[in-house]
Amino acid sequence: MAEVELRGVSKYYKEVAAVSDVSLRIPDREFVALLGPSGCGKTTTLRMLAGFIRPDTGQILIDGKDVTDLPPERRPTAMVFQSYALWPHMTVGENISFGLKLRKVPAAQIAERARAMLDVVRLPGVEHRFPSQLSGGQQQRVALARALVLGPKILLLDEPLSNLDAKLRVRMRDEIRRIQQELQITTVYVTHDQEEALTMADRIAVMNRGVIQQLGDANDIYDRPATSFVADFIGQSNFFRGTLRRANGVTWAHIGDERVAVEPVDGAPDGAHVTVSTRPEVVEVVRAPEPGAFALDDPRLVNFGAYQRLAGRHPTLGPIEARVPKSFRLDARPVYVKLTRARAFAEPEAEMRD
Ligand SMILES: Nc1ncnc2c1ncn2[C@@H]1O[C@H](COP(=O)(O)OP(=O)(O)OP(=O)(O)O)[C@@H](O)[C@H]1O
Ligand SMILES: [Mg+2]
């Protein structure tokens, strides 16, 4: 069993908070992704879990035991770094065995465990090759094997696939997920790639500027973003700014002299300034005027192969995009859009987007 917990953890560089009061509990065997833009504090968080960086405030617990002051080698963690950093002058077998030798594991056992680990990462028989004689994806597997051979309770991965091409990344993420489930190992996976996070992780912690903005599964963060940052960072959204008004049991966002029915997030009060977001795929397109439908000026189509995107502009709401099927055609008829599912976030002025 290996449960990990961050309790009110912060790390400052001068006055800049790289990580700010982060709390996160990861149950045994869970796969959690830390997802966010460059500089949001992902690597810093992971390095604090591994013990390479000491937090300025807060505690790190593994199985309820405070490990905040323990060095990396005394924690049951193993980390795979972004640049996989295999030792070029050592064979694959030597790379994988190195940590076991340091721990004075008997030689016969070392060879056996290294071989078994190469089977797990599906690279049997490459012990005697040097890293330069392997492809990028194969080297990545060796790096994974090197981390796993020590039998860590917790696997920490920092953007492990970023050096690979798109197709190989997709294959490797399935492999990593398979290995994680096979070994039933608690895993924290850092990425700025939302698709990786959405497809691999049990839960995703979306980070921005050193804080976790939302923690949830793929459906939570995609369908029910907690902040406009999450709505913007995950997938795509249309954004509007308005004022919240409740009337007859319906919550409206008044945008100029128009209004849109919204789902208020976190019980935003009446009169609050809100950011309204809606996904292009829930914007409904109709060709005749009806209540709640907004006429779209200058409609144009962008083809994405599998679908099309209809983009246009409403005089009050501004730019709006809708996802439409490949069969959709623009003709002489006007185009209207209905915002069927919109969320309203009450946010401080400074964080509102234009
Ligand atoms: N050693 C350091 N000294 C000063 N500032 C640092 C140091 N390490 C990180 N930072 C700053 O802390 C913030 C968080 O950095 P971190 O490396 O955790 O980001 P990240 O989310 O991993 O980004 P990326 O996706 O680019 O790897 C950044 O603003 C970074 O510039
Ligand atoms: Mg990083």
Short characterization:
By secondary structure, the chain is an alpha+beta fold. The chain has helices spanning 42-50, 92-102, 107-120, 136-148, 166-183, 194-200, 218-223, 228-233, and strands spanning 4-13, 16-26, 31-35, 57-62, 65-66, 77-80, 154-158, 186-191, 203-208, 211-216, 238-247, 250-255, 258-261, 263-265, 273-278, 283-286, 293-295, 297-303, 308-314, 318-324, 336-339, 343-346.
Keywords:
Rossmann fold; six-stranded mixed sheet; 8 helices; 36% strand; alpha+beta; 354 residues; binds adenosine-5'-triphosphate; binds magnesium ion; 2 domains
SSE layout and pairing:
Blueprint: E1 4-13, E2 16-26, E3 31-35, H1 42-50, E4 57-62, E5 65-66, E6 77-80, H2 92-102, H3 107-120, H4 136-148, E7 154-158, H5 166-183, E8 186-191, H6 194-200, E9 203-208, E10 211-216, H7 218-223, H8 228-233, E11 238-247, E12 250-255, E13 258-261, E14 263-265, E15 273-278, E16 283-286, E17 293-295, E18 297-303, E19 308-314, E20 318-324, E21 336-339, E22 343-346
Parallel strand pairs: 3-8, 3-9, 6-7, 7-8, 14-22
Antiparallel strand pairs: 1-2, 1-4, 4-5, 9-10, 11-12, 11-15, 12-13, 15-22, 16-21, 17-21, 18-19, 19-20
Helix pairs in contact: 2-3, 2-4, 3-4
The structure holds adenosine-5'-triphosphate and magnesium ion (MG).
Adenosine-5'-triphosphate binds near residues 36 and 192.
